[in-house]
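This follows on from our talk about sequence and fold. Can you supply me with one protein entry, sequence and fold together? Could you add the entry underneath, on a fresh line?
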Amino acid sequence: MDVTRNPNEHMAFGRGGPHMCLGNSLARLEVRIMFEDLLGRISKMERVGEIDHLRSNFVNGIKRFPVKVTLR
């Protein structure tokens, strides 16, 4: 690694960029397959508590979403 390289492009760890994780595509595929298989086994899902939202200036999301799952 040469920190004095020119041009010194900004590092990006999100979608794309020269420093993107090489295992990103495999991880996304594994998660998609896991959820596809899991959703096929669920017969009922219901919320059992309050949703806890993530408080951040950068990300809007859900921190906790308690559910009760009934499998087939």
